[in-house]
């Protein structure tokens, strides 16, 4: 992968990129990391810096690695990797080597910045902010009921805002 200028993001439809194409959120180091598929998040500008924001439930194994790291990566793939992303979104790294099961090749871009050789685009983000969602903060209770109370399988998400420090593209 080759480090490139952040302006490459201006050529991306980030709503489609995250919401429909999905991404992998990866945290940790060569000594130990985990990844998960996500389709909720965004890319923007906050506090005079380029940022990304992601949502991770505390019970996800990747959450542990995010908490222990200062950085995380957000990586994006061609449609031919949809099955690999499904694997990373349905298997737990606690129980299986889902990276191997997905056929992905870990690649360390820098300390605490693990991506995969198959990624076409990877953002390296430094954690700036975290907060836990609370039921009382939902102004539209339908959102709470639709995505949390009526859906079994997890708590409310933690929200992370990361400064995009580096962008890498496949050569």
Structure in words:
The structure is a single chain. With 171 residues, the protein is of the alpha+beta class. The longest helix has 9 residues, at 82-90. The strands form 2 sheets. Strands 1, 2, 3, 4, 5, 6, 9 and 10 form an 8-stranded antiparallel sheet that branches. It contains 5 helices and 10 strands; from the N terminus they run E-H-E-E-E-E-H-E-H-H-E-E-E-H-E. The radius of gyration is 15 Å and the shape is globular. It starts with a strand and ends with a strand.
Strand content: 35-45%
Helix count equals 5
Shape: globular
Helix content: 10-25%
Number of strands: 10
Indicate the mean pLDDT.
95
| Termini gap | 6 Å
Helix and strand sequence: EHEEEEHEHHEEEHE
Low-confidence stretches: none
As a whole number of angstroms, the C-alpha radius of gyration is 15 Å
**Biggest sheet features:** 8 strands, antiparallel
Q: Which class best fits the helix and strand makeup?
A: alpha+beta
């Amino acid at each position: 992968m080759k480090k490139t200028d952040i302006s490459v993001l201006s050529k991306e439809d980030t709503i489609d990129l995250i919401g429909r194409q999905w991404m992998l959120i990866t945290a940790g180091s060569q000594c130990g990391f985990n990844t998960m598929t996500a389709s909720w998040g965004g890319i923007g500008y906050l506090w005079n810096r380029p940022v990304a924001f992601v949502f991770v439930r505390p019970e996800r194994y990747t959450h542990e690695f995010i908490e222990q790291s200062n950085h995380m990566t957000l990586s994006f793939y061609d449609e031919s990797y949809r099955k690999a992303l499904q694997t990373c979104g349905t298997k737990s790294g606690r129980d299986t080597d889902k990276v191997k099961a997905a056929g992905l090749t870990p690649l360390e871009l820098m300390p605490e910045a693990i991506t995969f050789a198959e990624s076409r685009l990877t953002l390296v983000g430094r954690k700036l902010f975290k907060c836990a969602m609370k039921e009382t903060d939902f102004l539209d209770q339908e959102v709470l009921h639709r995505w949390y109370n009526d859906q079994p399988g997890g708590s409310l998400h933690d929200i992370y805002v990361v400064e995009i420090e580096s962008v890498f593209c496949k050569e």
